């Protein structure tokens, strides 16, 4: 969290993390497409020829003044492909909150857990405490066949009930805004606690 | 790049114990130790640290002297002061020196590790006060400063709060370390305000002038919370002290009117539950419940 005193801006960085093709960019795309252009910037993406995110996607949202400060949300995705571990760590740097986008398909269970553990590892390496990082988990692709039940996903992620989870279908926008709002609320709650 | 922490204490066992426990912070931190204030100053002069954790009472250069030097020379370094001999005066001085955390011995080691982690930017939220300005007031202030600059032909004019935070600037500041400059000037005004309070004065206008071989620097407080710094480069424009003060006083009067109802509040009063609720309402208005 960073306050730009000159411009009266409260900057928050939220990173969408998760395994390859879990729907991180789709979340940002939906937010971009369904948010007034007065509030959001352009969706900036760096993609490979196969249309996969190579470094990160970036979307900025800017709200009007609240108590004299303009909240600005900087949303990033990390590239999911195994190859780009260094980029993922770099993008996580300075994050105020994380949305972990999991792929709900049964066949992706192991990928989800591997990615979740890698995220914790990166946070620790960056000197951040993963247990304190505001984090929301989104179980995406709930419209596909052969889904892992939410109870199974919860068990696999070893969630104890304190991490908010949302079921989503990012292609249709189901659960997209709810996830982001929950993450923002967690970030703000933590900031208040630490003042 | 690793974040660098310096632990300063004259007791070897304390230095060792703190170093061992701060290693829990993880691989991104480099921890060094010094057994005296003098040793700390030598290390700091060689390479700055991100965080200095020091004991208060040490023979020779004590913790407060060390922090005073750091405050003046390396304002970006975060500071944690540990003491078993706390007093109101020490606490007040720690506040003046913008010490990030003042920890009274005995303390739980987890609390110190947490304080170190937070100090190093896991939550990079400034603990300083927030000046609440509407866009209109901000623009009015910037316009008035631009007018003043035109009237006195200064190279640049900087408006900052006494906590050392830049509010706005007009003119050319290329090549200047503006943040360090305002931090130093801001520190001098803190003393002035304390002096005014000591004398029971409700209002004080403090005008300072420093003539140098490269720059002339004028500074003046604007009420209790703000100050102006006016710089002239000797290469470009010589300043005329009487004219500068005449126009600056007029500008200060206008700035005081513009900021008359502006309040300076600590961040916990801005980022409070109300802020959270209003933010949540804004997001709901944007995207629906």
Description:
- The complex is a heterodimer of chains A (195) and B (289).
- Chain A has one domain (10-194): Rossmann fold (3-Layer(aba) Sandwich).
- Chain A has 195 residues and is α/β, with parallel strands linked by helices.
- In chain A, strands 1, 2, 3, 4, 5, 6, 7 and 8 form an 8-stranded mixed sheet that branches.
- The relative contact order of chain A is 0.18.
- In chain A, 31% of the residues lie in helices and 26% in strands.
- In chain A, β7 (135-140), α4 and β8 (165-167) form a beta-alpha-beta unit.
- Chain A has helices at residues 24-33, 85-92, 109-125, 150-156, 176-194, and strands at residues 2-4, 9-17, 44-47, 53-62, 70-77, 97-103, 135-140, 165-167.
- Chain A is built from 5 helices and 8 strands, in the order ββαβββαβαβαβα.
- Chain B has 289 residues and is an alpha/beta fold.
- Chain B has 2 domains: 3-122, Response regulator (Rossmann fold), CATH 3.40.50.2300; 130-265, Beta-Lactamase.
- In chain B, 45% of the residues lie in helices and 22% in strands.
- Chain B has 10 helices and 12 strands.
- Chain B has helices at 12-22, 37-46, 63-73, 88-96, 109-122, 135-152, 178-198, 241-258, 267-270, 273-287; strands spanning 3-8, 29-34, 51-55, 78-83, 101-104, 130-131, 156-161, 166-171, 207-211, 215-222, 226-233, 264-265.
- In chain B, β4 (78-83), α4 and β5 (101-104) form a beta-alpha-beta unit.
- The chains are: A alpha/beta (195), B alpha/beta (289).
- At the A-B interface, α5 of A face α5, β6, β8, α9 and α10 of B.
């Amino acid at each position: 969290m960073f306050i730009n005193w000159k411009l009266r801006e409260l900057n928050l960085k939220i990173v969408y993390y998760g395994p390859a093709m879990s729907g991180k960019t789709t979340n940002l795309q939906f937010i971009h497409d369904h948010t007034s252009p007065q509030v959001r910037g352009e969706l900036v993406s760096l993609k490979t020829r196969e249309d996969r995110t190579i470094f990160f996607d970036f979307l900025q949202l800017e709200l009007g003044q609240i108590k004299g400060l303009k909240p600005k949300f900087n949303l990033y995705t990390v590239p999911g492909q195994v190859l780009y571990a260094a980029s993922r760590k770099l993008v996580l740097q300075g994050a105020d909150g994380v949305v972990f986008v999991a792929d709900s398909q049964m066949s992706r269970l192991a990928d989800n857990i591997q990615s979740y553990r890698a995220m914790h590892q990166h946070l620790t390496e960056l000197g951040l405490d993963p247990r304190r990082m505001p984090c929301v988990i989104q179980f995406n692709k709930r419209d596909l066949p052969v889904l892992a039940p939410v109870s199974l996903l919860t068990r696999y992620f070893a969630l104890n009930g304190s991490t908010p989870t949302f079921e989503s279908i990012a292609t249709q926008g189901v659960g997209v805004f709810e996830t982001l709002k929950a993450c923002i609320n967690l970030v703000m709650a933590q900031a208040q606690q630490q003042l | 790049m690793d974040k660098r922490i310096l632990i300063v204490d004259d007791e070897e066992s304390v230095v060792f114990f703190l170093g061992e426990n701060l290693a829990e912070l993880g691989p991104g931190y480099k921890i060094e130790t010094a057994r005296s204030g003098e040793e700390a100053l030598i290390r700091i002069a060689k390479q700055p640290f991100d965080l200095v954790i020091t004991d208060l009472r040490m023979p020779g250069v004590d913790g407060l002297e060390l922090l005073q030097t750091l405050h003046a020379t390396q304002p970006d370094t975060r500071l944690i002061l540990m003491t078993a001999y706390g007093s109101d005066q020490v606490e007040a001085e720690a506040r003046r020196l913008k010490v990030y955390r003042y920890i009274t011995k005995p303390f739980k080691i987890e609390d110190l590790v947490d304080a170190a982690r937070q100090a190093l930017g896991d939550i990079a939220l400034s603990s300083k006060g927030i000046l609440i300005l509407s866009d209109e007031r901000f623009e009015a202030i910037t316009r008035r400063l631009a007018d003043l600059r035109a009237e006195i032909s200064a190279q640049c004019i900087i408006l900052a709060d006494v906590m050392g935070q830049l509010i706005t600037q007009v003119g050319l500041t290329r090549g200047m370390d503006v943040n360090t400059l305002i931090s130093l000037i801001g520190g001098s005004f803190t003393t002035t305000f304390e002096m005014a309070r000591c004398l029971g004065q409700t209002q004080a206008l403090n005008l300072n002038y420093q003539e140098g071989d490269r720059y002339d620097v004028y500074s003046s407080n604007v009420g209790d919370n703000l100050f102006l710094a006016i710089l002239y480069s000797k290469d470009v424009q010589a300043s005329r002290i009487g004219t500068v003060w005449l126009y600056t006083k007029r500008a200060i009067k206008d700035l005081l009117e513009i900021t008359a109802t502006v309040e300076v509040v600590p961040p916990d009063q801005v980022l409070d539950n109300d802020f959270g609720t209003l933010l949540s309402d804004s997001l709901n208005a944007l995207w629906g419940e």
